[in-house]
What we know:
Blueprint lengths: L4 E4 L6 H15 L3 E7 L9 H24 L5 E7 L2 H9 L4 E5 L12 H9 L4 E4 L10 E5 L3 H17 L3 E6 L5 H4 L4 H20 L2 H4 L5 E6 L3 H9 L4 E4 L6 H4 L4 H8 L5 E3 L10
Parallel strand pairs: 1-2, 1-4, 2-3, 4-5, 6-7, 6-9, 7-8, 9-10
Antiparallel strand pairs: 5-10
GO molecular function: ATP binding
Protein name: Nucleotide-binding universal stress UspA family protein
Keywords: ATP-binding, Nucleotide-binding
Amino acid sequence: MKEPIVVGINDTGANDAAVTWAMHRAAALKLPVQLVHAVDDRWMAESFAYNEMANKAATELLIKAKAHAAGVEPKVEVRTVLISGTAGYALRKRSKKASLVVIGSGTHVRPGGRLTDRALQIASVAVCPVAVVGEETVHNRHGVIVGVDGSEESTQAVAFAAAEADREGQELTVMHAYPIPGAWLQRGLPESSFGEQFMEEERLVLAETVAGLAEKYPDLVVHRVLATDPPAQALAEAASTAKLLVLGSRGGGGIKRLLLGSTAHAVLAQLACPTIITRIRRVKKSK
């Protein structure tokens, strides 16, 4: 059975955009969709009538979301799932057997403000890639942007983004953004020598990251971009007219798994377009 796309449903009003985006993707990839809502009942007692009311409201929320999904892509198989617990717990559990988890943003305190714990928690703990979808229009947008920094996480993000761009017939922009080192780091170094060496190292990072794409995707147009702005700022500006932004995340185990990464964290806080946070895939070594 094909792994479904899991959509986190809540009562913030951010559902429609997330469901619509997920349904179009599911139709294109011929995947089923699961609409998941979690009722956080940790503080409830079974004797409370509110427990029944909360579950009734949750069921109605899922019914409404399913009706919207059917209106978007009526041929896609859709299931609703109601789980007790936190949203992070519910979606992490479902992410173990999902191709993608999709959540609506709808969580800004103010324009450019921080995200609530819910979106950041889910993007941090999910096992599969996580897409965060805002309510901005997706029409008249073009291109897939991927941010890189030379890490294993970003290299795998490029592989994911290239496959997306090739499938969608979009051009791929691979962006490596790095702030210029402070003046105190440059002290004592010849200006021209320092600048040339620094730029050459960053060009090498970018070149190594995209190596092999031309052979695997001969028809894919790939743009390499070096930017000297802070990474989150450069990516947000580039993604303002893009169809999709892809970022890698620290995805190991233990404490490391819970670290989303400062750039991904900042980008989600100023969401410019649908953004996918990929998860690193560890290759098991043969004994």
